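FAQ: What does the model actually see?

It sees only this:
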Amino acid sequence: MAIIARKEKSNFTPTPKGLWPGVCCDVVDLGIVPGEWGPKHKIQIKWLVEAKPPRIDGKPYMVSKKYTLSLHEKANLRIMLETWGQKEMTPKQLEEFDVEGVVGTPCQIQVAEGIGDDGPFSFPQVVLKANGAKRIEIPKEYVRVKDRPDYKQPAVAATEEPEYVEDTKYQATDDDCPF
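And it is asked to produce this:
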């Protein structure tokens, strides 16, 4: 007798692409995350978006993006924050910036769409100042990730530096160059 495996169908509807009013609803500390370029401290920023057509259940759409927790001049987090604020960060902000402070901040979000292994998805392409766009509120029933009963603090505290172990098995060669 055959044992048939099937991909489960999803009823997920991605946020429609376009420029929409939004509000930052959460900043999630993901802790130290392994990656292609070594372990990095990551966060995820979430925005609620009021897009058209509206969701059937009346709730706002949500988009999110993961960032390395860095304010280096080329870091995606810094670029996004400076674009959103429409000004460069001050030297004092660059010394220490509490990313939690953006929760509740209104914005406009340029949402883009893509197709992944699990189907369509949407993501924030650009986050801009609200500049008179309709302001939306975080619904009272929204519970931040850190306040949910099933939330577990990241295994490695945010203030700890990752332990780097030299990998002697792999040595890059000219053939590894992507261009």
